[in-house]
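User: hey, got a sec? need Nucleoporin pom152 folded
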Amino acid sequence: MQAAQQPQGGGGRDTAIPFTHQRALIPASTIEFPTQRLYATSAFILLQALKLYDVYLVYTAHYPEEQSSKLLKWWAFDCLYLFVLWIMQIPWLQFSKFKTIALAILLATIDLFIFSIPSAAITTVVLKALLGDALGKQISVSRGKMINVKDVVFDSSHILGRHTVHILPYGTAKLNPGDEIYCIPSNEIGSKNIYVPIVLNNTIPRTISLSRYDFDTEESVVNQYSGGDIHRATEIGHGKHDLEHYFVRVRHPGVYKLESIISKDGLDVRLYNRLVYVFVCPTAEFLPAPSTDYCSGEKDTLQFRVTGVPPLRVEYSRYVNDRRAKLKMDRIQPENLDSPLAKIPGGLENAEPAFFTSAHHTSFNWGASAQLTINLQHTFENTGDYKYMIDRVIDGAGNVMEPVDSAVAHFDVHKQPAVSFECKATDPVKLLIGEQSTQLPLSLKGDSPWELEYEYLAENADSAASATRHKTKISTDKSALQARAPGEYKLLRVSDKFCRGDILFPSTCQVIQPPLPAVGLEATPIPSECAGDTEIGMRFAADFQGTPPFALEYRIIKQNGRSKTVVEKKRERVDRSRHVFTYLPSSSGEYIYEFTVLDDRNYKNRNPEIQSIKQVVHPQPDAKFTGSAKSALRTCVGDDIELPVELSGTGPFVLTWALANQTYTDTITGNRHVIHVPRLSRAGHHVVSLVKIQDANDCIKDLEARDVIIDVRRDRPKVFFYTDEEEGALALVAEGEKARLPLRLTGEGPWKVTYRNVDKDPKKIRKLLLRDPNAEIEVTDKGQYELLSVEDAICKGDALPPLYTVEWIDKPKLSIAEDMVSLRDDGVYERQAVCEGVSDAVDIIFQGQGPFYTSYSQHHILPGKRDGMLLSTEEVRSGVSKTWIGMQTQQGGKYRYSFNEISDQRYMNPLKIRPPLVVEQTVHSLPAVKFASKSRYERTVCVGDTFDSDDVGAIWLELKGQAPFTVRLGLKHQSEPYGKTVLLENIETNKYKLELKDEVLAPGQYDLQLLSVRDSNGCTAGASGPETLLIIDAQDIATIVPTETCAEHCVGDTLEYSLSGIGPFTISYQFNGRNEKIKSATSRLTMIADKPGNLTIISVGDQRNKCRSFPKGMTKVIHQVPSSLVSGGREVIESIQEGEMVQATVDLVGTPPFDFEWQRSETIWDSNKKRYFKGDVLERHTVHNVEDHHYAINTSVEGVIEVVRLKDRYCQYPRQHL
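Assistant: Yep! Here you go:
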């Protein structure tokens, strides 16, 4: 046998695709089958939910026939769903054609059932309209039992016609529907147009009357707009019927209110009590400053003027060298301002809608514009460009303006000029003999030109009193002061183009006139060591006068007979006043030494005036300076000087040394010696020279050791505090900040300075090492500071007065207006208690230099707790010393306001207020009143009883608050426009039984409404909500009255009686002498006059067997049937304006006088079918004794008017009720 062929694809039997999956329209690879089943099930559930919604619409429709299409729609939807499901063939939801058709029939049957009940009701209504009660039963007059009325002919032509009245809605107008606010710039009043919106409903305006209350004059004027003055806007798009927007143009500030609007058809329009506020736009500008140039450290007051509706707020920026700081100043207002705007934070956009009604205000003078000038004190601490710019100004109404003109103030702050000499005390300026003048170099800082004042003290002046003062002007900073004579020049004052400046050290410059150089020469032949009578050269000892270094030129000439030969030219350069040099010729002969040129530092090419020296050319002890004496020494006048000397040779020695042409001899035993130089009393350069030395062998040697130059300074170093002559040595700084005390030092740095605080720890000596002659001392403590000593690089000096005093600037302070609070023993200020929701504020007073800043925290203290719950932390910035803060009154309880920080212009960093300034206020919760829950149910009472009768039951009030209470309530019948008000006083408990002795005078619904309650705290609150309303239904005494007063009826008529009370009713009557008793479950009793005769009603009672009545003489005689035609028997629809009267004519056919009943039913507009339907009956009226065959019904109320019952002298129609 041939092997069975395997299926292709490499799979086995288990991998075959089921047939049901193959039938699916959408494969599982596209959408998985469970997901397809989920989609199908969800679609079915959605369709059934929509179907149930349509069922609800059918059952709740006033006219179910309007919904007749719903059944066909759902038949189509159900069949379409099943058809799509059959095409999709989703596994588990695959149905055959037969099953699909069966399911469609099942769903159609269900649809027919659920939609058929309203349709059946429609069918019943139609049949009853056509056949009446011919197929039904009614109570017969003769027997009081239900009988068939098929023998009674129903003829609908007896009552024909219907008059439908439709009331067009009133035209209404609302000014400023969005509660917008406007402002007009002050320079555009009368020229700029402000378009104020008016929303009109169901009317087109012909004229609009608008009143304006002027804020300033407090007068009102009325302006009328018509024609082109009334601007109609484009489509509004609010989805409201007949709603249009119009605009009127105003050009002046004030409060505008609609006074009247006349529509184009001449009718008045109802006006909403709305206002629109047009204010003068706020402005701010800087007042001209006296100067735009200032010096660093100067203070001035910047003024700016703010105009607008207070309270105002200004936001401005300060630029210092392009570095911006944003600042603001709020609550700018006149003192004692009483404006409702001050209690509305954020402006009128946060105001309650009632603020835009005239009933909310007694006066509008708070809207007047005010002009205020604010002083802003500032200190120009840094140099550069200062610019103040007003960014925004916001008035109390919330109008925001950004000024452009006069809103910027520019200042140039210049650094104070400074001047000092660029000459050194160690190197005075020299005025040479023969020169007219010399230049004293200056270092100038500032803006040219400068004016300089200096003092000149002649070189040989006896005292400082002989000094002379001079002034000069300098145009460039590279200039120098011209000196024409030697002496001391001292800078006194300097000022530049803008500022007065400082004199920096060195402030003095010494001008000297150096003497001409001179030299004294001593020539000594050098003997030979071998033979004392021969010479080997010449030793020269030169004593120079002048300013080293010196230069001495000479030449050596050798003479041979009469011929002379210049052997050599030499130049001795000497930096000391004595110089020893030798010359040893290289060959024997006669030599001539000629000295030709003498130079010093200042003078050149001078004649030394030395005679030529001739010579025929033919170990000594030594000494030299050591240690510090090797170089120049510097000291001050009067200081001791010691010079160490090292000696060599065989002692003892005799050392000869010279000082200022004075020689001294010291006998020395050792190899080291210290020369004690006499105290020098004259400033300048002093030279100490070693002259010669003699040893123990009596060998004498002239010394060539280097001289020691002693520079003796005239002045000792000094230190003193630099102060302005006018202000004194006083520094005022904010506590905690550093004070910089300026110093002036003379001498040569660095300096060692000691000082102390005399007032605080005077024993503590502070030391400083300073390198700047204009240095400053930074201190952090207040008190008097005293300089104790100074020592520069050369010697000790003197500390000079004055003392420098540092004092703290007074800190800002905060207080509460005393007339607004009372101070408790615990230091807490208490504000008078207020009721919840009442606006309140308290004034705070600043002391210091404005603008001011403070922050405070608000706590809500719960009963029985000491610490409260933090509500918020607020900040107050004010440019004036008195401002206010708003109190929290929106919720009852105790509130604590703790002021924690304060700052002003001088203390920019906020300071802690210790202890904090605390204000407390109690806010009484509003009382409340409502009906107790067990009393909130509808009650009934009979007419004639009182409201506290047993039938009404007990009415309890529940009150919350502080007793005693006063409650105001209203009692109003549904027909009354206002009702009466009842005042209940001195209620001592929180639960009160209400007892009203008022008699029930009329039937209907009475509304017992709680209006307001006031407790012992004086707080009053309105009552609202469902728990404040109690409805009492007043039932009339169960009565029966015929719907027609005529006692004549016709056979076949339906005898109708109107019953009042609570059914079912029990009625006893007599017909042709036979007593009958029947029951009526409704307020209308209907009987068929099946036989002629007399029908007399005996009594009627309600369901409680109370409120019974026994009518007298209520007898009817059955006669023939009359007819009536309303509006000629046609169906008339008439539209009128509210308040207009319309007339519906009723034509009567029969024997007068006629009585008939007509009714007004609700009109319902069907927007789909574009026609009116009759709804619920709103009222019924019975007209008696009409002698004419025509009757007019005048009405101004909307509804469908039709006659429902009619009788003439003998008969009435209808004879049976539908």
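Quick note: DSSP finds four helices and 91 strands in the chain. Let me know if you need anything else on Nucleoporin pom152.
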